[in-house]
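Hey, can you fold this one?
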Amino acid sequence: MTKQELELDIKTRFLRYVQVDTQSNPDLVMENHPSTKIQFDLIYMLEKELIELGVDDVKVTDTGILIAHIKGNISDAPCIALMAHVDTSNDVKGNGVKPQIIESYDGGNIALKSGLIISKDQNPQLSQYKGETLITSDGTTLLGADDKAGIAEIMSAVKQLVGDDGIKHGDVEVIFTCDEETGCGMDVFPYDDIHCDYCYTIDGGTRYEVETECFNASHANVTITGKSYHTGDARGRLVNALTVAAKYIASLPQSESPEATDGRFGFYCPLNIKGHLDEVKLGIFMRDFDLSELERRENVLINLGSNLELLYPGAKINVDIKKQYYNMVEVSNKNPKVRESIFEAGKRLGFPLFDSIIRGGTDGARMANDAGIPCPNIFTGGHNYHSLNEWAALPAMVDSAILIVEILKIGAEK
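Sure. Predicted structure:
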């Protein structure tokens, strides 16, 4: 496949995939796996496409996980997995995506049909793509490059593998998951069905970035119970759960919020709130690269609840905390060759790869900590994830697919 053919294949696939509605719903993860049935629409599309490419060992679980096995053409090579997720975030509207193609970017601001602007000043990465092809939504939805760009890149890499016997590779596993954005998709992952020695998630962002470290993550469900009385007869009786909830949120340090932190600084993030006078439920994320700091934040939320019960007699505050995933760096450090293969591939291709950290997490973090399988994350070329200003750069998507194939070749050498 020539580079031009690869570019067309990735673009065609990506445009097709982003128009399939796949938003997950964190409010439904305890009831359904996957949380939204529409995720199966893309899973079944990918199953069909893999079979059409000649991959005859494809399985879809009833919880929305696709696993395909591609037999290697060389023996005694490690089995390598490639993983991406089909769901998109529900932080903003993500269904009904209408992708817009900018064939030759002029280097300026990008005006979307909704009236939103993708500013070149706030998106310095745009400067490297003047004259190149970019893809956005129309500004009324997110685009879905997280992670449909990764899916397109994996599928194009698979097409190269099965279509060219000259590409030497060991066994390859292709994994597409649901509910990554809710943090719960890996709760039902069938580890007995995979045999990979290591895995790469194709779920990063900026061109050439490689990530082997991510946040430790927890989620708190906070239930505040008050006492409801008619407001005209409320003195000494009413305990307004909404008032207590407002105080709870306001007590979290603004200096430790997502909008006030970067780099290795962690945060608290109130995510959702619903309720009325007698009961309010809050969802709060906590993130930190240092596990002890994450646990400190968990204790802060518990102690805050106890203190507010004293300040608001009659109020009851329950804080239920669940660990979501852990920093995957320790598993990666035990298997340095997995990262080294990426950078060796980049060196051979002339790609200026660089290390970065994930201010978030991936299904790979869960795989690393649940099964001890190292799982670094590779760039996709997408930007401004979870927003209406999301965009993707086609040249970076092509480079990602090329890098994937080169990594598989190096795996066969080892």
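The chain has two domains: 3-214+327-413, 216-325. Let me know if you want another pass with a different chain boundary.
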